[in-house]
Amino acid sequence: MPATGNNHKELSVLWQQQAAEYRALCYQAFNMAGLRLNEALKNKPGKQKLAIITDLDETILNNSYSEAQLIKDGKEYSNQLWKDWIRQSAATGVPGAVEFLQMAQKKGIVIFYISNRDKTDVANTLINLRNCNCLTPIRRTCFFCRIHHQKNQEGNW
Predict the structure, then answer these.
(1) What is the per-residue pLDDT for 6?
(2) Considering only CA atoms, which of 70, 69, 67, 43 is closest in space to residue 57?
(3) pLDDT for residue 47
């Protein structure tokens, strides 16, 4: 790969996509979460229901391929390019994330997904989660915090 001014970005994307250490740390985190979940299920009082609340991007969904494409194309992040990426529903699961979520859902745990993605991105995000085999996430368990804004006539937000 030729040296560019984005060398730090290239190295971080390559590390996330290729390093055994990254995968090991992800699996370790989700394996520990599974152990803690089993303990919580064993020790919960009565019929109390449990839930998991998790962020989406870089916690469950790996978007490093979007960043890699930007580097390859010599482009910088923009809201439009991010929306184009989301429309592809092509993010992969972070190592260990999908298995953890599947295990939790099989045990009756409801998963709540939190994201700062735009509310207009819910449908494509649900498709992406299904493509990753994150069992059937439903709209009512997805909370997207960013509200779509449109420019006014003067071009201001």
Answers:
(1) 60
(2) 67
(3) 84
Which CATH number among 3.40.50.1000, 3.40.50.11890, 3.40.1010.20, 2.30.40.10 corresponds to the domain 7-146?
3.40.50.1000
In this structure, what token pair is assigned to residue 69? 């494409």
pLDDT of amino acid 153: 46
- Residues sharing a CB contact under 8 Å with residue 70, sequence separation 6 or more, in sequence order: 76, 77, 81
The whole-angstrom separation of Cα 148 and Cα 47 is: 39
Contact 121, 129 (CB under 8 A): no
Q: Which residues contact 60 (CB under 8 A, 6 or more apart)?
A: 54, 93, 94, 97, 98, 101, 113, 129, 132, 134
What are the 10-residue block averages of pLDDT along the chain, 157 residues in total?
66 91 98 97 88 93 95 93 96 96 92 88 91 73 62 40
Amino acid at 130: R
Cα–Cα distances in angstroms (integers) from residue 148 to residues 75, 117, 139, in the given order: 23, 9, 17
Q: pTM for this one?
A: 0.82
